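Hi support team,

I submitted a single chain yesterday and got back a structure, but I'm not sure I'm reading the token output correctly. Could someone confirm the output below corresponds to the sequence I sent? I've pasted both exactly as they appear in my results page.

Thanks,
R.
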Amino acid sequence: MQSLHRFTPALALLAACSLLSSTKEVAELAIEGETRDLPVHQRPRTAATERRADLLVIAIDGVDRALLYQMLRAGELPGLARLLGGGGANFPHAHFDDRVLTTFPSNTFTAWAALFTGRPPGENGIPSNEFFIRNRGSFAAPGPVSFNDPTPAVKILTEDYADKFLTAPTIYQRIRRHDPGVRIWVSMSQFHAGADLLLFARRRVLLDAFRVFLDNTVTGKDDAGRMATYASLDREVLDTAAAKVNGIDDDEPLPDVFTIYLAGTDLFAHVAKSGPDRARRRYLKEVVDPGLVRLRAAFNRRGGLTNRYVVVISDHGHTPVLEDERHALGSRDDREGPRDVLQAAGFRVRPFKWKTKDNDFQSVLAFGGAVAFVYLADRSTCADEGASCDFRRPPRWREDVLVAADAFHRASRAGEAIAKMRGTLDLVLVREGSEGPFRVYAGDGHLEDVADHLARHPREGYVDVVRRLRDLAIGPHGDRAGDILLLTRSGAEASIEDRYYFSRAYRSWHGSPSRQDSEIPFILAHPQKSRRELAALAQGALGDQPSIHRVGDLLVDLRLGR
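Hi R., thanks for writing in. Yes, this is the structure output for that exact sequence:
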């Protein structure tokens, strides 16, 4: 039986008083958060459980490698530096990996699903923030982009909404399979199956943060006002985590594995007038770093970092874009956008809603910043208006897939049918039968291999596109990436005027295969291991093509001592 309860402010205050002398800090730590006991079969702890190294995973959304590493080495994040066993430019017990790439698309749910399952998107079932599941005929939106209902985002934490779409076990389930007595806590993370305790902010705080982001209703505020909503979310997350650790009785074990997810860095970067780099710097220094100081103090009270790996990782970077309907190809009414391209080509399009009773559609669009997935039905089975399509059947190649691909290609090349789309798309990728690899649609029915096309038409800054596209499309659930994949001009353009994205209007987005979106930090620290030892562990686990899903495998191995 699951239980849902508040972490009492009295307990938080009592724990805080033992560590903090500042009245202000005590008050901050008394903020209520919620916890949920998750349905796992807890077994007795064994000697092996006690011997194994512990894990603390700090998952910071929306921070690229160059930004975080520079701030740490410049001494701008002293709290995080001390958690990593160093300070300034000196980190004798931490390895800063310079090679790990995130998924393609470089989006939140794609990346975190890969990390927390140790499997690429084509295997774990999560190709992007929103997607269509053909064999169920249902629209999945753990991270809504094409509509502004915050309900799915909250249900992730209250009803395990995102976990239900996974088609691979989480790293927590894999660890528990070999270590049944393990104690696993997760704070705010979208994927938490296999943990025994989930911590998250109060639902009012969650709803405020997600509603403001999805509505983008902060246009009239300065950056301080924009940041305040997200800062209240992450401060509550960090303070609740620290207080919960402090509240553990001395004869109880600390969590062996503890993942803390921080969303505000990314949410603020999307809307900040100052641009994503200045916004994230400010947020990391003013919100994240002080919270990590309190978290570290809570663990140190019990010696909880002595034999604990600390892992810091992110999911993607950010690319500045213009906040206007010309560049936002999924504005609220999708005026002259991708929906209109499909309609002009003769397709009925699913409404931009989380759930709809209207089943009269022959195509589905799912947005994700620099990318959009297009799902097509065999229109011959539902040609009449009002007829429902069976998306379990693949679309016809010439009559459905190539018709839609050609419409997007012509719209982007010459503004045909939809003038606003001219010059917006970098690549139109297609595949036959909703399975297998994508190829580049070059117009007039001509297809090109992706590697060959990029060799002839190189994109400055794109990284490891072919492999990452294969990880997305190939696998038992690669069909969830759609029949057509649209990639905007976003990641390879020097001028912000030439960048486009699928969503409503924001000031920064991601999703592309560019360096700024794709190169993520991965820091591995342990107080009893040297930088060289940690580098050897990372190299051995990640191999020659380090990707975020391989980091997930490494986390399992670190806990199990393999």
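A quick pointer for reading it: The longest helix spans residues 276-300. Let us know if anything else looks off.

Best,
Support desk
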